[in-house]
Amino acid sequence: MDFFKSGLKTVLGAPEPGQLPSGAETVERLVDRVNNSTLLEDRRDACRALKAMSRKYRVEVGAQGIDTLKQVLELDRADNETINYALDTLNNIMSPSQFEEEEDNPHVPMNIGEQFTEMFIKDPHNIQLLLDLLDEYDFRVRLSAVQLLTSLLTNRTKDIQEIILVKPMGVSKMMDLLGDTREVIRNETLLLLIKLTKGNANIQKIVAFENAFDRLFEIVSSEGYSDGGIIVEDCLLLMLNLLKNNSSNINFFKEGSYIQKMLPMFNTPEDLEDIGWSPQKVSNVHCMLQIVRTLVSPSNSAQIISSCQKIMKNVGFLDALCNILMASGVPADILTETINTVGEVVRGDITNQDFIGNVMAPSNPPRPAIVVLLMSMVNEKQPFPLRCAVLYCFQCYLYHNELSQTSLVQTLLPSSTDVSSLTSGRLLCGGLFSADVLSNWFSAVALMHALVDNLGQKEQLLRVLLATNVGSTPVSLLHQCTLLLQQTTKLQSKVALLMLLCHWMSHCSAAVSAFLQVPGGIGYLVNQTCSNEHDENEYLLQGLSAFLLAICIHFNDDSVESYTKDALKQLLVKRIGVETFTAKLSEVSKHELYNKAAKHPQLRVKIPAEILIDYEFCRLFKVLEGVLINSISEKQEPDPSEDRQSPAADNLEQYKSLIRQQDARLQELMQQLDGLMQQNYALQSALNDSIASNSLLKDENTLLKAQVSAKLPSQSNQTNQSSQATPGQQTQASQATNPDRILEYENKLQFLNSEVTRLTAELKASEEAKKIFEEDLVKLKQGQDDLKKDQDDLLELLADQDMKINEYKMRLVSLGQTVEETQADTELNLT
Amino acid sequence: MAYAYLFKYIIIGDTGVGKSCLLLQFTDKRFQPVHDLTIGVEFGARMITIDGKQIKLQIWDTAGQEAFRSITRSYYRGAAGALLVYDITRRETFNHLTTWLEDARQHSNSNMVIMLIGNKSDLESRREVKKEEGEAFAREHGLVFMETSAKTAANVEEAFINTAKEIYEKIQEGVFDINNEANGIKIGPQHSTAGGAKAGGAGAGGAAGGGCC
């Protein structure tokens, strides 16, 4: 507080005596100072003071200073100290947690940090500012920037993830900080990355791409694997984030041989028992087991699961897990989680299941590990989660494995030789009839899993005989179960036995007839189904009884005289009624715990009371519910003998007809498709044709236009007019989008063009005529000239003749002759 | 599995050009005619041999859709090789190559080897981009070029392997800084200790694996 006061004094000057300024006023003056001071030192001091005030006066500093502080980040980049104060102040304002200083201040809203965060990220550029600051090497700046980003992410995870995702170097920059040699920064970066990767697959993939797994394993190994501190846990948490529900990253993890790198995590030193497990080691190993389970989780794709399982077996991972199982001094929760993990590592993989079946526990006498585990399951002194884990592990051991299912049933059969030794079958039978409800439930469900989809074992199990009392005749296991069902008053035992019987008798008519022979069995079921108690669990019991009753009818081979299929159906219709029966059946899937169980193969319960329904039973129920309702409600078959022969036959017939129908439909659709394809083809070719002719017309058009514009100036009046019209038409045509109009214009144009050609032709013709005339004229002129010449010549000749005549006249006159006649003769000659 | 080097690849190009199919053909040797749109980025891996050395290829197949562009940009920096794919039956995918190349050059390290791939070479009848055009584009921008068919597997192996060869040569020439993992290249665990670790790893099984590092 002293520092705070002195800081204020240096910045604000000494306060007036007796009158202290209020918090808001002080903040206002400080913000003013940051905004307006020209000296860097002043701004820095004001920032420092703001930082000091930001815890107690968070609302005031945030409301007035957030923009100013953003400016500082932008403009004062050169001064690390100022930047650092600004970052710390922002971090305080936006801190997700409440400060001690503000605890007694009722005016601070609970989510104040979130509100300021929202304001801050309205401009995504602000995030870029912070990302840029990550490049700053200065320790304080870098650290504060990382912390501020972490706070922002805590407050508005999704928004900030989206902003960072679109910054090409955003994630890369943060990943680079993992390599910072200053451990504080590295560790804070880890926390930042954990927040950043939460629930965002795209960011997870980028982080993995940036070599996250390598870096993290480097850190884990340098910190001493599971013996390391909380940093190891942080690394593992980040890995877990990267892998959870992210098949691409799981694939990368597997392909990158990182599974092998996890192995040293599970190395158990020899003297572990003496040292004990530190709480941190427990957390670390727990995280590691979570990672393993993420890789082989039943919700992954089958391909990923099986390849991960194979690798885990091959590199000795499964051995290491089994070592933990068998080691002493392992804390209970680690043991529980290891059992779950072993279960998922072997689930559905025959090699691994076989391996786990052959592991021997270091007990005296040596017993198979499976037997030792089952001993814990039916032991009511063991912790509840551990017992659940054993059941899950055992289920996984039996899952999709006829061999392990067979070998379990084998241990119950009379032929099994060694009576004294403890076997899994014996343990389960013991559990089934023990006084402990949970043991009943666990054992019944475990036994049920040996029968899942395995008709052979359903029949084999019918052979199991139990000696109830010394001297009395042995009864069959099925018989005993049915009796127990009627006797017990405990809900969980009843439900468990009903589930076991349902699985046992479904698809197995031998088991159905065995059940029908047990006195009181059917009567009990009918009574249960009819019962009218109003309670969620009672509804469930009624539903389960109805379900079992329907199984008795549907899978009945009529081998028991008094309870043939038809007789039972009649009984059901009369005593219960089809409507009521259907309603009761539907109650099962409405039960809360049914829905919980149906979600995941592993039982996820916290308290023993929540144990009621099993996952595999839900599967059976889902498959059979519809079939059974159909089979009960359908009318009597016209030919019951056929029906009797095989209950599956009509089913088969139904499917056949369905397939036939679908086939016909398919054919029909195919034909339709063909028709449509042809149509499509025809339309396509028509389109192509029209496109081609269109382009042809266009070409012609342009050609003609060019011709027209070239020819027109030399044409006669009439054609000139038409050439004046063409430019107008041209523009109109280019404007008109309507192809009809274009066509119209094209037609007009064509008409005009033909006119032009016609006129041109006429012109040519007339020109030719003119030429001929001219030629004629020339010829005529020539003729005329010739004639003129001739005339001239003749005139000349005439003149000559005249002269000669005159001469001759003169001579005649001189000779004394008359000249009249001769003149007339000459005239006559001339014409 | 021991390897001498590990190379990171990315596959980029327009949506629907067959990036995921190329990867599937290369890693699983199968063709899937109907493939969902890639969301973000998917991962695949395979081991190849070059010059007698085992080389592990880690391949990130990116979404071609514009909406994922900003996400896929984050992958350029850390990749040693990129397959830039177009579809020879769709001219526009070829036209967009310049944009892709600019993007890649801007965000990647300068040594990244880029292989230009004209995919769907089996659809010769629908071809819109001539092989010569692809060759010319590659020559102009200094890329390696190849036409492939993810359907018939033609040239698919070669495309991935030739890219690796190119990277390998660059390493031999000392162009790549192989100690900087941001380049998309990693030296394998066996490389540093030669043959000894290999024999040890084989003999003692998984437990010895940790010791040799």
TrEMBL record, chain A:
Residues 652-686, 742-776 form a coiled coil. The keyword Chloroplast does not apply. GO terms for biological process: endoplasmic reticulum to Golgi vesicle-mediated transport; Golgi vesicle docking; intracellular protein transport; transcytosis; vesicle fusion with Golgi apparatus. It is a peripheral membrane protein. Residues 698-827 form the Uso1/p115-like vesicle tethering protein C-terminal domain. Residues 714-724 have a biased composition (Low complexity). Residues 710-737 are annotated as: Disordered. GO terms for cellular component: endoplasmic reticulum; ER to Golgi transport vesicle membrane; Golgi membrane; Golgi stack. The keyword Plastid does not apply. Keywords: Coiled coil, Cytoplasm, Golgi apparatus, Membrane, Repeat. Residues 725-737 have a biased composition (Polar residues). Residues 367-631 form the Vesicle tethering protein Uso1/P115-like head domain. InterPro entries: ARM-like, ARM-type_fold, P115_Arm_rpt, Uso1_p115_C, Vesicle_P115, Vesicle_Uso1_P115_head. It is found in: Cytoplasm; Endomembrane system; Golgi apparatus. PANTHER family: GENERAL VESICULAR TRANSPORT FACTOR P115. This is General vesicular transport factor p115. It comes from Pieris brassicae.
From TrEMBL, chain B:
One of its GO terms (cellular component) is Golgi apparatus. The keyword Transcription regulation does not apply. Gene3D superfamilies: P-loop containing nucleotide triphosphate hydrolases. The keyword Cell division does not apply. Keywords: ER-Golgi transport, Golgi apparatus, GTP-binding, Lipoprotein, Membrane, Nucleotide-binding, Prenylation, Protein transport, Transport. GO terms for biological process: protein transport; vesicle-mediated transport. One of its GO terms (molecular function) is GTP binding. It comes from the Eukaryota. It is a lipid-anchor. It is found in: Endomembrane system; Golgi apparatus. Belongs to the small GTPase superfamily. Rab family. This is Ras-related protein Rab-2A.
